[in-house]
C-alpha cells in the first residue's frame, strides 16, 4: 500500500498508543482480580464456604473472577486494535470499534446495577459473614478463626454485627477486637460486615472517577477507530477510482 496521508498516519499512531494503554490496563485488571482472590482482606469471603448460599462471599469471589476475565478480554481486544492500526485494515478497525462500543454499554450497565444494589449487597454480606462466623467458632475452625481475627484487625471491627456476637457463640472477645490487641483499650464498636461494606463504598468516588476515565478513553478509541476505518476506506476507494480512470485514459 502506498503511503497514507499525514492525518491517517497520525490517527494510526494515536490508536496504536491508545491500545498500548488498554493493554497495560488489561494487565492491571488481571493483577487486581488476582489480588482480590488472594488478599488477606478477602480471606473470609474466599473460604471454602462460599460454595454454599453465602452470596456475600460469592459476590467477592465472582468480582475477582470477573476482573480477571475482563482483563484478559481487554488484553486481547487491545492486541486486536493494535493489529488493526498497524495493518490499517478497515475490517479489523470496524470490528474493533463495534466490540469496544458493546463493551462500553456492558460496563455502564454493570456500574449502574452495582450502584443500585447497595442495600441488597449489604444485607447479603451480613448474612453470609454471619454463617462463616458461627461456623468458625461453633465448629472450632482455627483457619476460619484466624481469618476472622485478621479481618477484625484490618478493618478495626469486632464480630459480624458487633462485639456481642461473641456472647452468642460462647466465646470471649478476642484481642483482635481491641485497639492495642492487649485487652486494655476500648473494643471496636463497629461490626465487620458494616466495616467491610463501608470500606467498599468509601472507594466508590475513586471507582467512579476511574470508570469515567476509562469510558472517556474507550469512547475516544471508538471514535478514532471508526474515523481511521472510514479514512482507510476512502483512501482505498480513491486509489481504485484513480487506477480505473488511468486505465480508461490509456
UniProtKB/TrEMBL annotation:
CDD domains on file: tetraspanin_LEL (cd03127)
InterPro entries: Tetraspanin/Peripherin, Tetraspanin_animals, Tetraspanin_EC2_sf
Membrane topology: Multi-pass membrane protein
Keyword terms: Disulfide bond, Membrane, Transmembrane, Transmembrane helix
Superkingdom classification of source: Eukaryota
Chief location: membrane
GO cellular component terms given for this protein: plasma membrane
Stretches that traverse the bilayer: 12-36, 65-86, 93-115, 206-232
Disulfide bond sites: 157-192, 158-177
Classification via Gene3D superfamilies: Tetraspanin
Cellular compartment(s): Membrane
UniProt xrefs under SUPFAM superfamilies: Tetraspanin
Protein name: Tetraspanin
Species name: Adineta steineri
Amino acid at each position: 500500500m502506498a503511503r497514507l496521508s499525514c492525518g491517517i498516519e497520525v490517527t494510526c499512531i494515536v490508536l496504536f498508543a491508545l491500545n498500548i494503554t488498554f493493554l497495560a490496563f488489561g494487565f492491571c485488571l488481571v493483577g487486581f482480580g488476582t489480588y482480590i482472590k488472594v488478599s488477606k482482606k478477602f480471606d473470609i469471603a474466599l473460604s471454602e464456604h462460599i460454595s454454599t448460599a453465602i452470596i456475600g462471599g460469592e459476590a467477592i469471589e465472582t468480582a475477582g473472577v470477573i476482573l480477571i476475565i475482563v482483563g484478559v478480554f481487554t488484553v486481547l481486544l487491545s492486541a486486536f486494535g493494535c493489529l488493526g492500526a498497524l495493518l490499517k485494515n478497515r475490517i479489523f478497525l470496524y470490528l474493533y470499534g463495534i466490540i469496544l462500543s458493546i463493551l462500553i454499554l456492558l460496563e455502564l450497565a454493570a456500574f449502574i446495577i452495582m450502584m443500585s444494589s447497595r442495600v441488597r449487597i449489604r444485607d447479603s454480606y451480613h448474612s453470609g459473614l454471619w454463617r462463616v462466623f458461627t461456623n468458625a467458632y461453633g465448629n472450632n475452625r482455627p483457619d476460619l478463626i484466624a481469618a476472622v481475627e485478621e479481618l477484625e484487625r484490618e478493618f478495626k471491627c469486632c464480630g459480624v454485627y458487633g462485639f456481642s456476637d461473641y456472647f452468642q457463640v460462647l466465646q470471649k472477645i478476642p484481642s483482635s477486637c481491641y485497639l492495642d490487641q492487649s485487652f486494655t483499650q476500648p473494643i471496636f464498636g463497629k461490626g465487620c460486615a458494616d466495616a467491610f461494606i463501608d470500606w467498599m463504598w468509601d472507594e466508590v468516588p475513586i471507582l467512579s472517577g476511574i470508570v469515567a476515565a476509562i469510558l472517556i478513553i474507550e469512547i475516544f478509541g471508538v471514535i478514532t477507530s471508526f474515523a481511521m476505518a472510514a479514512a482507510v476506506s476512502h483512501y482505498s476507494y480513491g486509489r481504485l477510482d484513480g487506477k480505473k480512470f488511468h486505465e480508461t485514459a490509456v
